[in-house]
Amino acid sequence: MPSNANPYYFAPVSRVARITPNMLRITLSGGDLSRFVSSGDPDERLLVVFPADGENHPPVPQPIGDTWDYPADGPRPEMRSFTVRHWNSATAEMDIDFVVHDSGVAVRWALQARPGQVLGVTTASGWYRPPDDTAWQLLIADMAALPAVSRILEELASGIRVHVIAEVTTAGDTQSPETAGDVTYTWLHGTGNGVGPSALATTAREWTRPDGPGYVWFAGEAGLSREVRRWLRHGLGWSSERYDVIGYWRADKEAWTARYEEVRGQIEAARVAALTAGGDFDSLRDAVDAAMDDAGL
């Protein structure tokens, strides 16, 4: 038997609520969540394991070596990455918010979710790390990242200065959680989120930055994340400890994946060349980003 604890946690749905026109909240309670340990990061992400169509419970992983997993040569359940919107260790309850859009395994499941159905989740981790000397923060998010932004704001210490630039599907999808921070907002409606070009990067560049050392957190479409990172690293000349930029999802994923497979060799060659040159992690990311840009990815 494996020596490590099973890293998958299965728990039943206890509540389903539509919190905005295009956001559903699924609450899981009990089950394996009695042993779940939060990473403590307000933007913590984990994989959600979905049942097959017509099933109420995802398949259970098997002991493989010294851990638990699904066999590589067999069917694997559908999994997608999500933010832990809220975790209550006292009641073993977890909220996960789902963006409602046109297609996808996750949204199809969420739209039919009922109490008693079971989801699986994995261990969680996050990225939000403002340096101790941060005088102000800029949080940039689309709908997929709004749950993380909301939890960050809820957990702010008193007086922390934060501006949020958020791109939501409709004006009804805005969310302003209770916070002890000094928080202001710029809401963008009807752009990005798979319905058209995003205005997040342009709006962030045009926003007047306060004096003092800042910190920027971005999460959203993966291609846009490269644009935002390039602005912070090269446009502003910031060092990487002053920002965290994460790609949560990818537009036109099937077409992107097909193109990536065609040019995988040249992107890998760029990565190897950067490693051979002895550059740091950020230089490596620059080289890979440039290769992906050249390949039209």
UniProtKB/TrEMBL annotation:
The Swiss-Prot or TrEMBL record annotates one GO molecular function as: oxidoreductase activity
Can you give the residue ranges of the FAD-binding FR-type domain? Answer: 6-131
Q: Enumerate the CDD domains for this protein.
A: siderophore_interacting
* Pfam families the UniProt entry points to: FAD_binding_9, SIP
PANTHER family listed in its UniProt record: FERRIC REDUCTASE, NADPH-DEPENDENT, NADPH-DEPENDENT FERRIC-CHELATE REDUCTASE
Task: State the name under which the record lists this protein.
Answer: Siderophore-interacting protein
Protein species of origin: Rhodococcus xishaensis
